[in-house]
Amino acid sequence: MMSSPAAGGCQSSLVSFVPQEEMLQRLMAMGVTRNAATRGLYYTGNNSADLAAAWIFENQDKDLDAPLELDSSTSSEDDFGEAVGDDFFDDSDLYKMVFVVNTSLKMGIGKIAAQVAHASLGLYKTMVENQQRFGEMLLSWEQFGEMKIVLKGEDAAHLTMLAGQAQALDLPHYVVQDAGKTQVQPGSVTVLALMGKADVVNEVTGNLSLL
Asked: Is Hydrolase one of the keywords UniProt gives this record (predicted)?
């Protein structure tokens, strides 16, 4: 018995997507589920674990852990996809801003958001004030989606150690010490922000998990 044209048309519309295994494993090592990692790679071109991680972080409201189901009408363009387009990028082409949160303080969601915002502004102002040194870096970062990722740090000593590594690699960085008005003690080290080429930043934070 021959298949009906409708059934054949349905079959031909299906699209297969195979994520790069190396990228998939890097994302899973960061604590991302396989399904979420697959989605992140699909929507960012399947070329960069960093882009995929940033997409996952910025799309937490979506059902990321559901299996990826595609058809020929599915578009892979979103905020990052539109910025990256069809060109191939590897980690050495991209800049990212990373925030490492001191999880030992057990801050609430709102407190963490405020501290990350503080770190972001502090680092950005530091770089803007030194355009000769950081202007090109900021321009490249802004041009390709302003990638931002929030990761888990262990404690103040851990963040201080990471800041030292960033300093040794000549990466711009900023450490937030809280005023202690809510939730934490005055002077507590809450967040480390750092920025640079993705592959260089990964030398400092590449083994940390997403918050």
From this structure: yes
